[in-house]
Design brief:
The structure is a single chain. The chain has 250 residues and is an alpha/beta fold. Helix content is 34%, strand content 34%. The chain contains seven helices and twelve strands. Strands 5-11-10-6-12 form a five-stranded mixed barrel, surrounded by four helices. The protein has a two-stranded antiparallel ribbon with strand order 7-8. The longest helix has 19 residues, at 223-241. Bound molecules: ligand LNDFFVEH. The ligand O=C(O)c1cccc(C(=O)CC[C@H]2O[C@@H](n3cnc4c(=O)[nH]cnc43)[C@H](O)[C@@H]2O)c1 is lined by residues 10, 57, 87-90, 162, 165-167, 185-188, 210-211, 213, 216. Its EC number is 3.2.2.26. Residues 45-238 form the Nucleoside phosphorylase domain. This is Futalosine hydrolase. Catalyzes the hydrolysis of futalosine (FL) to dehypoxanthine futalosine (DHFL) and hypoxanthine, a step in the biosynthesis of menaquinone (MK, vitamin K2).
């Protein structure tokens, strides 16, 4: 069975960057509707197909969209082996500078738990659910190597999924202390990961840093630079994506 990959972004600008990078090596294969008013943009490579989906902002919207795309693929007997959550993100200062890339070694729901007088308690400690998808080295390693080969600055680390963008130093410090391996925060990775895991697909998160995690400073955002980096990463990854083994996260 050919290797099939689904790349999920939150918004169209991110999907445009990914598509721009893919088309340096992959052939456009048209568009396909997905139930729920979604559209897949399709690309063909020598090793299999890559589909790009705009799944919406936030973990709930993107999980629903990713689930719809995965279900369509399963019903069509063309399941995805790998799902990639891609887009812009906030980078933790000192770990992921503006314009650089982050490859996930873990995808973490940073606020899926309970606040208690003793502090935050993740769902695992409450006795239900999970808040972490660990990404195997077999996925993270080749992707990071492809970015190195293309000369693209990157960090390998945890990517936090939040429902509220961090806007204060106190919140940034609390997240960094609770998740010392975190390199970036965004709003979709965990939703994509939950949908992928439900279908037995491997999952990876790839982020380009548009802003620092910390006090809100809209003037300091570098969304254009991040979208340019995302495009370069997509181009660099086409050969690597086709060689990755399908390994679900743990
Ligand atoms: O209004 C603000 O202060 C603000 C700051 C950063 C980002 C936003 C967004 O609405 C973008 C959300 C969108 O982009 C991803 N993203 C980018 N930077 C971050 C971040 O620092 N923390 C969380 N998400 C971020 C996210 O995945 C969404 O798709 C607003």
């Amino acid at each position: 069975m050919p290797h099939r990959i689904l790349i999920v972004t939150a918004v169209a600008a991110e999907a445009d960057s990914v598509a721009g990078g893919l088309t340096t090596l992959a052939r456009p294969g048209g568009e396909l509707p997905v139930p729920g008013g979604l559209v897949l943009r399709r690309y063909a490579t020598e090793r299999g197909g890559i589909d790009v989906l705009v799944g919406g902002v936030g973990p709930a919207a993107v999980a629903a969209a990713t689930g719809a795309a995965l279900t369509r693929a399963a019903l069509a007997a063309e399941p995805y082996g790998l799902v990639v959550s891609a887009g812009i993100a906030g980078g933790f200062p000192g770990r992921a500078p503006l314009g650089s890339l982050v490859v996930s070694d873990a995808i973490v729901a940073a606020d899926l738990g309970a606040d208690t007088p003793e502090g935050y308690v993740p769902v695992e400690e409450l006795g239900f659910g999970r808040s972490v998808h660990r990404v195997p080295d077999a996925l993270t390693g080749p992707v990071a190597a492809a970015l190195v080969a293309a000369g693209l600055p990157h960090t390998t680390g945890g990517v936090l999924t939040v429902s509220t963008v961090t806007g204060s130093a106190a919140r940034a410090d609390a997240l960094a202390a609770r998740h010392p391996g975190a390199a970036a925060e965004a709003m979709e990775g965990f939703g994509v990961a939950e949908a992928a895991a439900a279908h037995g697909a491997a999952v990876l998160e790839l982020r380009a840093v548009s802003n620092a995690v910390g006090p809100r400073d809209r003037a300091a955002w570098r969304i254009g630079d991040a979208l340019t980096a995302l495009r370069a990463a997509a181009a660099a990854l086409v050969p690597a994506l086709g060689t990755l083994k399908d390994r679900p996260c743990s």
